[in-house]
Amino acid sequence: MSALTPEMEHRLGSAVERMPAFPRSVQMILELTRNINCQAKDLVGVIEKDPVMTMKILKVINSAYYSLPSKINSVSQSVVYLGINTIKNLALGFAAVGILPRMNAAGFDIQRYLLHSLVVAGAARQAATVFAKGEVDSGDCYIAGLLHDFGKVVFAQFLAAEFREALTHAGEHSVPLHEAERLVIGVDHGVVGALLAKRWTFPDYLVDCIRDHHDPDAEPSAMMDCLRVADQVVRFREIGDSGNPWRATEAPVAPERFGDSTEEVVARLGSLDKLVQDAQLFAQVGNEP
Q: Average of pLDDT values for 154-178?
């Protein structure tokens, strides 16, 4: 941020402040679940006071995706079947979807962005269980994947002309979008996403991961490794669109943990089809009023 002009610093700060806050119920869910002694009944009590959240969670759990033997009629039953972490991620995801603008002047495809982010979230969680078990909370990796590109939404909404120029430059010159953002805007979406995550009172380790996921000099961590490889794999598979298409010249991320073959990482993670199905259902329910 220090390299930015005072005017741009002001514009970025103003843009972040103008983004909607998470609903109070979701903030309370995040506060509760940061406590390892979180009780299911406390979580249920918060969710049941939010009828829209309750309806969406019940709609997802009763969908064909979960194929449960009988209908679930309460949040407490949902917690029993899905667990506290999954319910937390559902609540957070629905809140994030609700914040997304329907249109933007930058021409950034929000629905394809959403699909990309949801599948990255699922793939980051999957990578944590396969490659980093015991090193990092897989639920935190899901949150990092869901929110890692949210700075692009800020750009598309409030710095539309500059972001459109960055998207065009990245496409025409076949360079990573974050490099084009630094060139055109002076800062990349990770930095702005971190400002937003800090405003939303996420823990510092999540804020740092969002801020640094495109910084090659950032201190490595299991969460960062899982986020980076999930993003790369989803772009490799061309699922959704983050404005940053896969380039054949890309080097594998975190080769010390994952090896130097993207194809082998894809194979070890397994099919992403179920994650895509989950994301499509989630996006559909999340966009309903």
A: 96
